[in-house]
Specification:
Layout: E1 3-8, E2 17-22, E3 25-32, E4 35-40, E5 54-56, E6 59-61, E7 68-70, E8 76-78, E9 82-83, E10 86-87, H1 90-97, E11 107-113, E12 116-120
Antiparallel strand pairs: 1-12, 2-3, 3-4, 4-11, 5-6, 6-7, 7-8, 9-10, 11-12
The chain binds FE2/S2 (inorganic) cluster (FES).
């Protein structure tokens, strides 16, 4: 485990989502009403950049196939439901899942010390 400084509170205003590189890892950071949540910018379905998706509160939706995750816990809340925003029938969903089972997304802890923010890799 390694703690890396990612900036200050001013760099991450509440209600904003930012994608940053922390060492070799791309991370999506969400400053929610309840604190910071961070996930790897890599959807566990096919590895596409989930940070391009929509974020509402703690919920992030992959823009590629609609999988949904809680950004604070990493929990998968829905798995492969659409293609580029269009809902899919179940047989197409199964095909697009490509044998992959619902999987949580990698989360990271963000801690605050004074005005500084750190992410634990
Ligand atoms: S790449 Fe995210 S749901 Fe397929």
């Amino acid at each position: 485990m390694k703690k890396v400084k990612i900036g200050t509170l001013n760099d991450f205003p509440q209600g904003k989502v930012r994608i940053i590189r922390v060492e070799s890892v791309m991370v999506v950071i969400n400053h929610t009403e309840n604190g910071f949540c961070a996930v790897e910018n890599r959807c566990p379905h096919l590895g596409f950049p989930i940070g391009l998706g929509q974020v509402e509160g703690n919920l992030i939706t992959c823009p590629f196939h609609g999988s949904k995750f809680d950004m604070c816990t990493g929990e998968n809340l829905d798995w492969v439901t659409s293609l580029a925003g269009a809902k899919l029938p179940s047989w197409t969903r199964r095909m697009l899942m490509m044998g992959k089972q619902p999987t949580p997304i990698q989360t990271f802890e963000v801690t605050q010390e004074g005005d500084s923010l750190y992410l634990t890799l």
